[in-house]
Specification:
Helix 5 (about 115-125) runs parallel beside helix 11. The protein has 13 helices and no strands. The chain starts with a helix and ends with a helix. The chain is mainly α. The longest helix has about 35 residues, at about 60-95.
């Protein structure tokens, strides 16, 4: 197939997806950006105009900066724990050969098929003061842990829902690293652990970046988990946006927080892609 015909076919195949992305993502984001520059009028929600006072308030007020730092900390811890758990699992699912692997993969991915409300309710039951986790701790002679309405509980719930999403790109990344590459490293004297960390891990950089981006996206959109598992004790940015929309009715300020969060998420994606490219270049060299 010639170059022009291949380009035409690519445009034809990508057109529906690009149209869907433009209508349901790009246009709403542009509308949010416009609303974020309007002025807030109590009783009238908002008035068309142009101001950057909402961005200034969000990025300079100590209260909101503290909540932004809290959100970043929750996102960082959730991402690290998710990757530490998901990468070995992805490696094992790709490399291992045993009966029932499909069943295990289905169980791991089952949260994708479960309603968020059911997942939230399950974690409330598990992490309550008299929940299953604390009952188990008491049974083995350990003190009960404060999990519900705590940062730890929110991280646990977010990791649970993030692992299936992170596992998909990680499985794809590990699948691209052939067994012969590890065998070549070990034939040169590397132990299995060294071959994994020095060869396999850098070559999975793109998958790690994609998994990290998905996890951060879940944290920034994990409204239900933050609301019901964390409550007022863990006020991350998604909850603040919800409060501005439903209680304060300051829609321009909520839009400014949403746009700022999106910019931060895109910056994290760009950083992750850069790190993944550097890791790949180091291994290739």
């Amino acid at each position: 197939m010639t170059g022009p015909r291949r380009s035409t076919l690519a445009i034809f195949v990508l057109a529906p997806g690009l149209f869907f992305l433009a209508v349901f993502f790009v246009l709403p984001v542009l509308m949010l950006m416009q609303i974020s520059t309007w002025t807030f009028t109590p009783g009238a929600l908002m008035r068309a105009g142009f101001t950057l006072e909402h961005y200034a308030a969000f990025l300079t007020d100590p209260f909101y900066l503290g909540k932004l730092a809290l959100t970043a900390r929750v996102a960082l811890v959730t991402t690290i724990v998710t990757l530490v758990l998901a990468l070995p699992l992805a490696y094992w699912l790709v490399r291992a050969r045993f009966a029932g692997k499909g069943l295990i993969l289905g169980l791991v991915l089952s949260p994708l098929l479960t309603n968020f409300v059911v997942l939230v309710f399950a974690w409330i039951v598990l992490m309550g003061d008299n929940g299953a986790i604390n009952q188990l701790l008491r049974a083995v002679g350990l003190p009960a842990a404060k999990l519900l309405y705590s940062e730890t509980g929110v991280v646990i719930a977010l990791v649970h829902i993030s692992i299936p999403y992170a596992l998909i790109p990680l499985i794809a990344a590990v699948s691209q690293v052939g067994d012969d590459i590890e065998a070549a490293a070990m034939s040169l004297g590397a132990s299995p652990w060294r071959a994994f960390f020095a060869v396999v891990l850098p070559l999975c950089g793109a998958g790690l970046g994609a998994a990290a981006f998905v996890t951060v996206s879940i944290v920034l959109s994990g409204f239900a988990f933050a609301l019901f598992v964390g409550g007022d004790s863990v006020l991350i940015v998604p909850l603040l946006i919800w409060q501005q929309v439903s209680k304060t009715l300051n829609w321009p300020f909520a839009a400014a927080m949403s746009v700022a969060s999106l910019v931060i998420m895109l910056a994290i994606l760009a950083l992750g892609m850069w790190l993944a490219r550097r890791l790949g270049q180091r291994v290739s060299a």
